[in-house]
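FIELD: query
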Amino acid sequence: MKFDYYQYEISSHFASAIINGDYSGLIDSDIKELDLFMNNLPVENGHFDLVDYDGEGFFSRCEICGLYSECLKIRLYFPLNEATA
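FIELD: result
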């Protein structure tokens, strides 16, 4: 099976929710922003088979909340349709 990915610069405080499904460190407004972001991803239902990230944080604008913070480059992988791969 072949995969492709989308890459985003995302505030590090969202990483656990995206990678592990652990929302425990997020406040209600963060959860709403993350859910909106995930629901608007170009993949059906925001479903990804694999997620990884660069271990080095850097200061940038988060693509989820729009605020400047320590961010990670997170890659969300999805399977390619075998007919088009």
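FIELD: remark
The mean pLDDT is 86.
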